[in-house]
Amino acid sequence: MKIGVMVESFRLGFRAGVEKAAQLGAAGIQAYATGGELGFATMTPAKAKEALDIVKSNGMVFSAICGDFGYGFDDPARNPEMIEKSKRIIDVAKMLECDIVTTHIHRVPEIECEQKEILRAACTELGRYADSMNSKFALETGPEFGSVLGGFLQSLDTTGVRVNFDPANLVMVAGDRPENALKALGPYVVHTHAKDGIKLRKPAEGELIVGEEALHHAELAKMGHTYLELPLGKGDVDFDIYLPALHAAGFDGFLTIEREVGASPEADIAMAVDFLREKLAKFSL
Questions:
Q1: How many CB atoms lie within 10 A of CB 125?
Q2: Secondary structure string (H, E, C) spanning 171-223
Q3: Whole-Å CA distances, 111 to 14, 142, 148, 265
Q4: What are the pLDDT digits (tens) for 46-71?
Q5: How far is CA 25 from CA 3, 102, 234, 259, in A?
Q6: Which of 130-144, 187-201, 233-247 comes out lowest in average pLDDT?
């Protein structure tokens, strides 16, 4: 397995973020193409070549491109526009010599219903386009249990839709265990996010449990927060169980560090790189 970094996590801009990732010894970076410096709407072959040259000159590759607009694909009125934008991001990824675009599609319902069929139609169209480009449109884990997402993927008539596996999202949002989710999703995983966190819960009125401790997070729960992202090794993702399970599922790609919060992203990312190196060495991955 290889270590990557979401370049936006540094909050330094594209070039500086790439250079910082290289200094930390990362092998790849993921970047957004929904807007910003690599935004699909303003991308040209010349701009793509410049970005690719920056990455390659620092000894790295694009591990994946992020195509998450912050919306899902469960609104039939909006879907035509969102699908076309997502296809353009697959095109941009190809220009950047990358075959994987990641996104959230919103929660997949457990039962068959109109919303699930709307999601299925959108993913089928995007998957077939990805197939035509020899690319993968990777759905990020989190809102639903891995078994639900796995069943949804099995129902699609395309091999172009796969999984961007985020263990923290499963823990923080769905309340699933990553090693359990891999039983259904292992064959579909083409990219991962290295992230950690905890689910904030109130099992009974006035009672708070955060993992096994952390009463000091009570104020967050009172404010309506349902989860808390934490540095690697500080949350409820058990990497000693998760990483071997990921390897056993046949994955040998990127563990891309994503740090969406925190006052010291560079320090947190550096710690995450060291943490992953230690775990990869420990399990000979």
A1: 20
A2: HHHHCCCHHHHHHHHHHHEEEEEECEEEEEEEEECCEEEECCECHHHHHHHHC
A3: 42, 17, 9, 39
A4: 999 999 999 999 999 999 999 999 88
A5: 8, 23, 22, 17
A6: 187-201
| Residues 100 and 94: beta-carbon distance below 8 Å | no
Q: Which residues pair with 214 in a beta bridge?
A: none
The answer to whether 214 and 198 have CB atoms below 8 angstroms apart is yes
Distance CA 197, CA 161 (A): 26
What pTM did the predictor assign? 0.92
Distance CA 140, CA 121 (A): 18
Residue 227 confidence (pLDDT): 66
Is residue 34 a contact partner of residue 89, using CB atoms and an 8 Å limit?
yes
Tokens of 150: 């796995």
Distance CA 157, CA 96 (A): 27
Q: Which tokens sit at 162? A: 């796969």
What CA–CA distance (Å, rounded) separates 37 from 109? 35
Residue with tokens 């990312």: 269
Q: What is the pLDDT of residue 232?
A: 92
Residue-wise pLDDT for 180-207, tens only, equals 999 999 999 999 999 999 887 644 444 4
